[in-house]
């Protein structure tokens, strides 16, 4: 019997390795990255199309297409799709990201072949019904009107708009009138242009083998044709950062966002900034939390975040405080940036963050679906297949001097946009 009076020994994580996927190709050329992992007879399939915001001809065309795709096809109405999925215990989603539009299926392995005909018909014969488009527009207009009363939403929208520019796919904001301008013809054009076999990648995970590959080929191997995909130039404008205050009367708290233009995961400094961001505000024991929440008591939550996308990226810090603490909070944010630029991080803090991140990496490898998410990021962002192991190595080996150099390079006060929204 184990001795319950003694805690188990603490063991340092020495190495982590991402399980490498097998790669197959359907008859129409779509690559399939498959991971046969796990002990449960479940399957997850995700079709990824490079059909997000950077590829739009008209604003909101990408999001509208993804949202309405599962609202009916030639052979399956929206109600029939819901009934079939419910009967077989499957789920079908069409999540939209800034860069990609996806189709996700979760299923018991024995019922995987039951949901694929629905996916195939949605891709071959989508309807995009006009009445569903009208409902989609109304729902999002109502939701947006509510969101635009919230300081934190306004602050995030504004700082990304200032960082990237209002004409940039990562920077433009939608308004009720933007939704009103969406038409069914725009959606059909977006679908026909970008939902192509040579613009698609499939990620398959769970208990999978040749049987699931055969099912994919049977139902999805002939549903899409290849075609010319328009070149997408994406460039963020170089702008001098500034400070912006937005008056929103009647609100109790003030939302603060401080941030700057940065880069995507392909940049050579990304891995080091990933670590530095964690030190600053990327976990509960971060410096921003320890100072502004725990010591000063100005806020309940404060954080910093790296947002890497396929073509670009940004960094920002965010919090909400009572109006009387706004100036003091901003000053303390800059104080923390200055400390990272001027002082070396102590060994105890360095070790703590390393152990925290290594533990996080373990959760990324916990289960087949999590592994598939990591692989999806690597493949869709055209990273080397060894990216995960390289990130682990940087976390294990990075020094205080390297982190101070990165802070001096990317965390200077004069490079930061500042957005304040409140009364």
* Low-confidence runs: none
Question: What's the number of extended β-strand segments?
Answer: 11
Helical run tally: 15
Order of helices and strands: EEEHHEEHHHHHEHEEHHEEHHHHHE
Please, what is the CATH homologous superfamily of the largest domain? Metalloenzyme, LuxS/M16 peptidase-like
The CATH class of the largest domain turns out to be Alpha Beta
Instruction: Return the average pLDDT rounded to an integer.
Output: 95
Share of helix among residues? Answer: 40-55%
Distance between the termini: 62 Å
- The helix-and-strand class reads alpha+beta
What is the molecular shape? globular
Q: How many separate domains make up the residues?
A: 2
Strand order of the largest sheet: 1-2-6-3-5-4
Strand content: 15-25%
CATH topology of the largest domain: Cytochrome Bc1 Complex, Chain A, domain 1
SSE map:
Blueprint: E1 22-25, E2 31-36, E3 42-49, H1 61-68, H2 78-88, E4 91-93, E5 101-108, H3 112-124, H4 130-147, H5 151-164, H6 176-180, H7 184-194, E6 200-206, H8 210-220, E7 243-247, E8 253-261, H9 270-281, H10 287-295, E9 302-308, E10 313-322, H11 326-342, H12 347-364, H13 368-380, H14 387-397, H15 400-410, E11 417-422
Parallel strand pairs: 2-6, 7-11
Antiparallel strand pairs: 1-2, 3-5, 3-6, 4-5, 8-10, 8-11, 9-10
Helix pairs in contact: 1-7, 3-8, 9-15, 10-11, 11-15
